[in-house]
């Protein structure tokens, strides 16, 4: 396998044996200016000082979260492993936010759900709970427009035969058109319709500020991250 000359050192890393555990700083965030969504959890780590409680859905984003958010302490990682259940991320984040809301002597902790588009869609109605109960739950939505982990298996074992693993518009695939209007569904509008402030990040340079705005805004907040795909496989 050869390394594309335009790509940063991460491509070289991908061509060699992966490290036993990826380390902060060793990230591939700037491929042709588009975010590689796999690296977004590391920016979240930096912006939360590693102090957040992290929940996840099930899929590639869950692996990215495990790889790129180095936990400083035990009892910060709430995930559905083994026979993992998609849709787990948001409800469990609500529970954690309620348990650590800083009220009546309870500790105050920031809670981020690092979720996938497929997983998030399975329980997105819980945005209403977050809004009504004013829970301090943030969502980092890694939107690759696919059931990414299944796509990975389709590619590896089934000659890339797709079995309804693409979640976006058929007639206009965002990854081809590069027209943001083709990202489907519109998670920002969805969150806003529930009263939850939200924004979409496509460019590397916008991610950190978006995470900061979420951290500084009381109550729920959704940051949708769209970026480089395909080719954004797990490390
Ligand atoms: C309720 C449920 N249905 C199906 C699966 C099988 N499954 C595991 S990962 C995955 C795709 C997840 O897609 P997404 O949430 O978008 O995460 P990504 O892999 O794209 O990051 C599926 C369908 C599951 N784990 N749970
Ligand atoms: Mg996905």
From TrEMBL:
The keyword Transferase applies. GO terms for biological process: isoleucine biosynthetic process; L-valine biosynthetic process. Its EC number is 2.2.1.6. Residues 1-22 are annotated as: Disordered. The keyword Transferase applies. It is an enzyme of class 2 (transferase). CDD domains: TPP_AHAS. One of its GO terms (cellular component) is acetolactate synthase complex. Keywords: Transferase. One of its GO terms (molecular function) is flavin adenine dinucleotide binding. Gene3D superfamilies: 3.40.50.970. Residues 57-225 form the Thiamine pyrophosphate enzyme TPP-binding domain. Belongs to the TPP enzyme family. This is Acetolactate synthase I/II/III largesubunit. It comes from Monoraphidium neglectum.
